[in-house]
Amino acid sequence: FAKPAVGPLFVNIFIIGGILLLYDSPIENLGFAVIFGAAVQLIWLFCLLFSSGISAKNAFSRETFKSEIFMVFLKQTAPVAMWIFLTPIVPLFERYLMSLQQEGSVAILNYTDKILYLPLGVISISLANAAFPNLSLAVLEKRNVRIELLEKFLWLLVICMFPIQVLMNSCSLEISQIIYQRGQFGELESRLTTDLLSAYSWSLIPVSGTLLLNRLFFAAGQFKIPFFAGLVTILLQLSADAFLVPRFGPIGIGWGASIASIFQTTALLAILGFKSGTGVAWYCAKPLFLALILAEGFNLVLPGFFYQLFVFLPSGKMGSLLALSASWVLFQTFSILFFRYGLPRTKSCEV
């Protein structure tokens, strides 16, 4: 898992380098940096294949290719592939609904999505990718899947995402004002961004928790559970968007996403409790729902607290890059220390 994971780093390095070098160039030129980074990633993956002794000649030989194993893999992962295939229906439908709203709604939705993807990519997806091989090894080595490991991942996730969730909820106005100052947005677009960020913020922790819970089921070879939970969530989100947007405007998209994400997390926890016991589900649910409750209280008691911390961050493109790099190093260091000296152990369980 570790060596292939280096590939996306190449893509990100070339994207960041393209942003810095092509700052005053047409935005289309950034696409060349993405293509070049993707090509480097592809070359890296082929080098890993060749170093493992896999080539075009022996890829389908009897020693390398086992049709029985391939069919089992295909049968188990087919539901996940179908779920991934259906997922793009949601953003397509959302943009259709937003196109019926005031001018600029689609652009603001796209911009808001990019803001949300930053913490999800840096923290949530990173933790999910780190959790999956550990949980898979626990199953591969014929050991019980330790709830201790997943619980630590969930607590680490909540500790890192909690201030971001509070920041986007209580300080959405300040964030949108920064966008207003640096981008081509008017007062109406700024207000729309404020509403969307505030509504979308409630989906950050549930979406992140779903990523980890899905990895738990994937590691146990139970691919159908995330598929059915995801399918019902897609239908719920489409229905919520269709109901909320005509009545409340563009903010309905954000609330629809938050409602659907909370439902998906709750459904996965309920299934986990049914299969492994309510105690296991409680261990996993405790940090997620505690964070949501505390976030609302934090917004009422200390609004703008986390935003004041960002005032001291350096400005400018190089300053922003340094701030992001420092945040990434801090996150990695904290993660290592947390897993070494973190929460006390809990009992093992089978999933």
What key phrases describe this protein's structure?
mainly alpha; 2 domains; 14 helices; 0% strand; globular
What is the CA-based Rg, rounded? 22 Å
- Beta-strand level of the residues, as a percent range? under 5%
Q: What's the total helix number?
A: 14
Let me know the average pLDDT: 79
CA distance, first residue to last residue: 22 Å
Uncertain ranges: none
Principal-axes geometry comes out as globular
The structural class is: mainly alpha
Largest sheet: none
Order of H and E elements: HHHHHHHHHHHHHH
* Number of separate strands: 0
Number of domains: 2
Helix percent reads over 70%
Q: What's the short story on this structure?
A:
This protein is mostly helical.
How would you describe the overall organization of this protein?
The protein is mainly α and 351 residues long. The chain folds into two domains: 1-65; 76-341, no CATH class. It contains 14 helices and no strands. Helix 1 runs antiparallel to helix 2, helix 6 runs parallel beside helix 12 and helix 9 packs parallel to helix 11 (251-276).
